[in-house]
Amino acid sequence: MDLHSALRRYDAVVRRDAPAEGPGARLERDHGAGAVLRHVVPDGRGWHGVCWSDLDEDTADAAIAAQLRAFAAYGHPFEWKVYAHDRPADLAGRLRRAGFTPGPDEAVMVAEVTSVPTDAALPEGVRLHTVTDPADLHLLDEVHDAVFGPDGTSLRSWLGPVLETAPETVHLVVALAGDRPVSAARSSLPPEPAGTGFAGLWGGGTLPEWRGRGLYRALVAARARHAAERGFRYLHVDASDASRPVLERLGFHRLTTTRPYVFDPSSPGHRRNEAPA
């Protein structure tokens, strides 16, 4: 894979020309100071934040202030995804000074679908279940809360409407040991014509007592197989330190790193902050 070319393509089609994902979601382009693309979910059910920006030392602070004002109208926490190659070089520091809280670094991993194994052995007594009925979304919530901790969010609350209105844009898989969900993951499949070949892998998690038994690999394989059937060329993942080595063994390459910066208007510290002029 030509990684430089893949990164340019990723920046263009996954970030700059990102499709709106989920019922009620929309994109807002702000060209007032530099250029910023916001993904907005007015009811808060879904990802809410800045997915792309083209800024420099002269425009960054004004652009940050403009996003604080824009997102304030919705009253929900929002995230600014900062990538290692984003400009200006001190964008992360400027966001911190504006009241954003950094999350963990993640590696942006990309693979061509045809290079990823689409078969994987499952432990005895475990089967994969593709979730297509909103009534089964509690299975994903159970794994999410057990692996990542309950955070007040519900996958069911925003994936339910997606399954009802645009089921072709997601692929949801749960590993079941008997009737118990022990691992789960999802993929996003941008609709044409906005989608141009990148399927995103998200939310992969396995209960601690089931780790090291090939379940994550099996979920990647299942989603790769589905993406290939749908005609996607690439898979992309924001990978933690735990999942990155597994993905590398499956044919993924690291393009860059990304880190979320979150602004929560409801926290006491943020309520005291004024947006910079």
From TrEMBL:
Transmembrane region(s): none
Keywords tagged on the record: Acyltransferase, Transferase
Protein name: GNAT family N-acetyltransferase
EC class of the enzyme, as a word: transferase
A Pfam family of this chain: Acetyltransf_1
Domain called N-acetyltransferase: residue spans: 126-277
UniProt xrefs under InterPro entries: Acyl_CoA_acyltransferase, GNAT_dom
Acyltransferase in keyword set: yes
Entry EC number(s): 2.3.1.-
GO molecular function, one term: acyltransferase activity
